[in-house]
Amino acid sequence: MRLRPAVALILWALAACSFVVTPGFGATSTAIDSKVGRIGGLSGIEVTDGGAGFVAISDAGYVVRGTITRSGGRLTGAVVTELMPLRDKNGKALDRGKGRGDAEGLAMEPSGRLHVSFEGMNRVLAYDSGDKGLLHPPLPKVPGLGSNAGFEALAVDDQRRLVTVQEESPDGDPTPILRLERGRWREVAALVRSGDFRPTGADFGPDGALYLLEREVRTLGFRSRIRRIDLSEGGTVEGTVVWAPPISWGNLEGLSVWTDEEGQTRMTMVADDNFLSILPGGLVEIVLDNSGRGL
Asked: Which residues form the signal peptide (predicted)?
């Protein structure tokens, strides 16, 4: 979701002050540098190369790749090394200005195939290379899908099935969790909403559960949390909150769940700076403990 400039200006003070310099609360963070020019609006992320690399998407209609560094298991830096435009089925670069390039959700298969969900013109495209996007079956038309409230959370399970959750609830509560099965999107569960938290990112963990990143926009900043959801239960699901820091880490919109060399489950998130220098944009990372909660 793109924040309106007026809202972003109100939020910048708390977010900017707390994003990088505030220690503790189970997370480490770093800004993202770039060797390929100005980047921003990062809304989805996948960690690669055992934690040493990343792929991300921007809501300006491009995909970025880069490297990550750590020291003692803590984030110390991230650098963008490659930038490519997202393209349609004909190989034409997507134009955000016409509502076609507002990329929000990112999921990656072990083969490297990328899946991207878009707002505005709500749809999901697959990319085997940077040349052309393959259009997945149309998403169902449901109430609540405004130009800035579409399918932000996208993930792929171990059976290569895509799962998506829209940002806004069509009828208040609960919200359908959709899975792509045999050429059509099917509701596999219904997510109970709580407070003003809205889904912004998702990924499946090594335990097979869906981890959902949610954001709440407040007058003086952002709040984020992660919920663990067992889709095998079906029906109405609420899940378990595994991370809910009392401080703001910026406008967190993308989530990647992965296992490091020590067998620890890590969750790496990316913040959308809305292309505003006053808002923070970078990576935030937590490690789950044995109970499945953020350290």
From this structure: 1-26
> Which residue is listed with tokens 């505030």?
22
Are 68 and 75 in contact by the 8 Å Cβ rule? The answer is yes
Angle at CA of residue 252, ends 246 and 254, nearest 5°: 135
Q: Where are the alpha helices (DSSP H) in the chain?
A: 5-19
pTM, 2 dp: 0.90
In a 3-state reduction of DSSP, which class is residue 165?
strand
Given this model, what pLDDT does residue 83 score? 94
- Measured from the Cβ of residue 157, the count of other Cβ atoms closer than 10 Å reads 16
**Residue 110: both structure tokens together:** 């072990």
Domain ranges (residues) in the chain: 5-287
The one-letter code for the residue type at 160 is: R
Question: How many Å apart are CA 49 and CA 110, to the nearest integer?
Answer: 11
The predicted-structure confidence for 184-221, as pLDDT tens digits, reads as follows 999 999 999 988 899 999 999 999 999 999 999 877 77
Query: Going by CATH, does the domain composed of 5-287 fall within 3.30.43?
Result: no
Is residue 190 exposed (0-12), middle (13-18) or buried (19+ Cβ within 10 Å)? middle
